[in-house]
Design goal:
3-stranded antiparallel β-sheet; alpha+beta; 3 helices; about 100 residues; binds zinc ion
Amino acid sequence: MPCIARRARPLVLHGTLTTFRRRCGKPACRCAAGEPHESPALTYTEDGRTKTLTLSAGEVEEVRAALVRYESAREELEDAAREGIAALRSRRGGRT
Ligand SMILES: [Zn+2]
């Protein structure tokens, strides 16, 4: 896919916004004994596996909007599919 076409398209994402918690492994770090480090993250499924992508704070709103974009596109597609079934059915109804 050409790069320009990809950039022209608004970001679309299928996944879930979560908070990723981890201990960095440094023995002197506050996370060793206390609260783990937290960062916003996106979990998504790829090849049947759940993956996590950590996000910068600045990316969260962009990702949230991209998730909404996916959901509304999917709803539109499902509506179209329901209309497709209804159209097929009415065609059958008209014939009998
Ligand atoms: Zn740490």
